């Protein structure tokens, strides 16, 4: 069920977010999002890093804006959507594409702009808008970081008829779960040793070089992830074996690496002239 979008969401100081997030949180809604954000900021230009640091520091007076703060901001949207005031944001974490198509259509798949594709564009624009309050731009960074990760996650760009794999039952390492949960939680929980180690792993991977940031590129990224979903996300058997899990983890690392690279591109585009 789709819920009504609130016109605005309150900004919560980043240090409070860091304190409120459970340290055991894993997966794309935890370690993955944190690693993507930290790596993206590390790869950004000095001008971009300084501009972002100023925005975040204004909302954490007297604090040092470092990797922990970036990680907390990028993880926050998952915690926020579970609150009474954050329910409106749930549809922004994914897009479900018509099963009869192999490409994203905004008119068909993102009615009213309620999907992750529109969310990336919206919060990128807010981050780069100097007319907004610093608190709103800081909040936009956290949402942009998180939704860029979601945009590259298999099954977050998925089929409408199985709700992004949520209706597909599988078994992995003796546990019954749905396929979406396998990619979201079980897979990273098995292979990852925390967001810092994951960021180091991603940093060591080859970087192919980003292209220009524009709406056409955003659509191309969406279709690319949908291709990954179609070709790699579904196991040949409902019992997931180690070979499929290992391949899936390599796909995950590839997608996280591209998400970080492309987030860097967007950050440089939106903040590079601040």
Shape: globular
The CATH superfamily name is: P1 Nuclease
SSE-based structural type: mainly alpha
* Total strands: 5
Briefly, what CATH class? Answer: Mainly Alpha
Q: Which spans of ≥5 residues are poorly predicted at pLDDT below 50?
A: 1-27
Structure characterization notes:
With 274 residues, this protein is mainly α. It has a single domain (22-271), classed as Orthogonal Bundle (P1 Nuclease). The chain has helices at residues 14-20, 28-43, 46-57, 67-81, 106-109, 116-127, 134-151, 179-191, 195-203, 215-232, 242-271; strands at 95-97, 157-159, 169-172, 175-178, 239-240. It has a three-stranded mixed beta sheet. Strands 1-2 form a two-stranded parallel ribbon. Strand 3 and strand 4 (175-178) form a beta hairpin. Helix 4 crosses helix 7 (134-151). The longest helix is centred in the C-terminal third of the chain and has 30 residues, at 242-271. The termini are far apart.
Summarize the structure.
With 274 residues, the chain is mainly alpha-helical. It is 56% helix and 6% strand.
List keywords for this structure.
single chain; 274 residues; mainly alpha; P1 Nuclease; 11 helices; 6% strand; disulfide bond; metal ion binding; S1/P1 nuclease
Topology:
Elements: H1 14-20, H2 28-43, H3 46-57, H4 67-81, E1 95-97, H5 106-109, H6 116-127, H7 134-151, E2 157-159, E3 169-172, E4 175-178, H8 179-191, H9 195-203, H10 215-232, E5 239-240, H11 242-271
Parallel strand pairs: 1-2, 3-5
Antiparallel strand pairs: 3-4
Helix pairs in contact: 1-4, 2-4, 2-7, 2-8, 2-9, 2-11, 3-11, 4-7, 6-7, 7-11, 8-11
């Amino acid at each position: 069920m789709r819920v009504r979008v609130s016109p605005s969401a309150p900004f919560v100081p980043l240090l409070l977010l860091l304190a409120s997030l459970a340290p055991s949180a894993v997966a794309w809604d935890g370690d993955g999002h944190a690693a993507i954000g930290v790596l993206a900021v590390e790869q950004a230009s000095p001008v971009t890093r300084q501009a972002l640091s100023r925005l975040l520091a204004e909302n954490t007076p007297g604090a040092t804006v470092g990797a922990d703060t970036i990680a907390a901001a990028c993880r926050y949207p998952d915690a926020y959507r579970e609150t009474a005031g954050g329910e409106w944001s749930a549809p922004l974490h994914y897009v479900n594409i018509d099963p009869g198509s192999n490409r994203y259509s905004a008119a068909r798949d993102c009615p009213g702009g309620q999907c992750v594709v529109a969310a990336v564009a919206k919060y990128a624009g807010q981050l780069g808008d100097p007319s907004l309050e610093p608190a709103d731009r800081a909040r936009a960074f956290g949402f942009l970081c998180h939704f860029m990760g979601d945009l590259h996650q298999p099954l977050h760009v998925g089929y409408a008829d199985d709700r992004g794999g949520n209706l597909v039952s599988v078994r992995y390492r003796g546990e019954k779960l749905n396929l979406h949960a396998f990619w979201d939680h079980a897979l990273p929980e098995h292979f990852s040793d925390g967001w810092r180690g994951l960021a180091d792993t991603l940093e060591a991977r080859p970087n192919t070089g980003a292209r220009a940031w524009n709406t056409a590129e955003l659509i191309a990224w969406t279709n690319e992830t949908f291709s990954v979903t179609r070709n790699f996300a579904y196991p040949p058997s409902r019992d997931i074996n180690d070979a499929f899990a290992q391949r899936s983890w390599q796909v995950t690392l590839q997608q996280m690496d591209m998400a970080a690279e492309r987030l860097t591109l967007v950050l440089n585009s939106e903040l590079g002239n601040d």
